[in-house]
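During the no-cost extension, the postdoctoral fellow (Dr. R.K.) reprocessed legacy sequence entries with the updated structure-token encoder. One reprocessed record is reproduced below for audit purposes.
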Amino acid sequence: MENLDALREELLAAVGGADSLDALEELRVSALGRKGRVTELMKGLGGLDPDERRAAGQALNAVKTAVSDAIEARHAGLADAALDAALAADRVDITLPVRPEAEGRLHPISQTFDEIIAIFGEMGFSVAEGPDIEDDFHNFTALNIPPEHPARQMHDTFYLPEKDDGERMLLRTHTSPVQIRAMQSPEPPAADHRAGPHLSLRLRHDAHADVPSGRRADRRRDLAYGPSQGLPDRVLPRLFRGRRRAGPFPAELLPFHRTFG
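Re-encoded structure tokens follow.
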């Protein structure tokens, strides 16, 4: 049988000289693989006498263990070196400027509301907002909408599940509940808010509506119709940049109306 001490020293020297993971893998296969030098020697143990086989088997196992441990240690060292090299090559230069990121923009509806609030604010109006989820009193009862009114039906209103006391909250179906709350406050302001009536969905719209609603009040009760009628002439030219045309407008929404666009 081959000199096992010389074989061990040769293999350990080869392991220590491996300079890459690929070279180390080739050495492992040539020494410990299915047709490796150590494996072939172990296959030949069957032709020896029992006493010689026992001694040779122990010596071969010792060689195999020493080579395996050396290969494992060398693999860890080469893997760490490869990782360090990769990190050095891929190092991020922290002195570089930050990559530009896309900035968001205000939605056109939000921009329009901001302009409306600014215009009316210069005229002395203030802003009030109310909850999007309303109770029955502010949405219906305070507005003299009777229980049998169609607006209270499920097909016209988004209702929430009943609470413990049996009350059912709902999505505000119009702008008037905010006006009710504003009139109940010590300083009633103008109102600007949203409504969510139960409308049939379409490709270009849903059941949500953004509705600016205003209310003009005077504690002295000396309001005249003329100044109110002139509000559109003061507001709409600024809102639509002075573009004006004649056209129809739902009379039930405003007793006085102008069409701009």
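Helices lie at 4-17, 21-32, 37-43, 50-89, 108-122, 136-139, 176-184, 225-239. Residues 190-203, 251-261 have pLDDT under 50 and may be disordered. The remaining legacy entries will be reprocessed before the final report is submitted.
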